[in-house]
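Tokenised fold entry reproduced for absentees:

. . .
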Amino acid sequence: MRRGAPRCSGGYEMNIPDLLEIAVAWKRAARPTDEEQEKADARVSICNGCEHKAFREFLHIYVCDACGCPLNKKIYSPRGPEACPKNKWHI
């Protein structure tokens, strides 16, 4: 019997491209270029005013309630504006 794809905390199925996006975002968060940091700063300012920003007490981090991703890494996503599940990153 074949098992289903793993699911992230937001309930979405994760696939190989998702895992690659996550890996790149974590790498960028550790050592961002000036351009990546500028983009991340613009994204986090949008997230700070978003109704989907939620604090997870048990993890001590903010996440996006729409997808379940930790915001401190999500803002470094290589996907561009469409990485925001609510399409708010068109800056």
About this structure: DSSP finds three helices and two strands in the chain. The beta strands are 53-56, 61-64.
